[in-house]
């Protein structure tokens, strides 16, 4: 296996990781931003107020995107398994 193909595999692995993490984190980030704006507008300084909505949004994202996330990881895994003969030979 040439160094260029190894770099391509590494690049694809990083893109899959970023895609999966972004799909989980970004909905919670947006809900946290909305709650923070609400807290700033109403002068509520309770730090635990934003935890539950962010947690719920992250769980909903995992629940609704779970099939797609697992399918993406499986596709990447099968692609890596198919590359094994090229790495060995």
TrEMBL record:
GO terms for biological process: bacterial-type flagellum assembly; protein secretion. Keywords: Bacterial flagellum, Cell membrane, Cell projection, Cilium, Flagellum, Membrane, Transmembrane, Transmembrane helix. InterPro entries: Bac_export_3, FliQ. It is a multi-pass membrane protein. It is found in: Cell membrane; Bacterial flagellum basal body. The chain crosses the membrane at residues 13-39, 51-70. It comes from the Bacteria. GO terms for cellular component: bacterial-type flagellum basal body; plasma membrane. NCBIfam families: fliQ. Belongs to the FliQ/MopD/SpaQ family. Role in flagellar biosynthesis. This is Flagellar biosynthetic protein FliQ. It comes from Shewanella psychromarinicola.
């Amino acid at each position: 296996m040439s160094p260029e193909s190894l770099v391509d595999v590494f690049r694809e692995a990083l893109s899959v990781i970023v895609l999966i993490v972004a799909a989980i984190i970004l909905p919670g980030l947006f809900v946290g931003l909305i709650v923070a704006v609400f807290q700033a507008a109403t002068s509520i300084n309770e730090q635990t107020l934003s935890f539950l909505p962010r947690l719920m949004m992250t769980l909903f994202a995992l629940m609704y995107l779970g099939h797609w996330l697992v399918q993406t990881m499986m596709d990447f895994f099968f692609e890596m398994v198919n590359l094994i003969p090229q790495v060995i030979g």
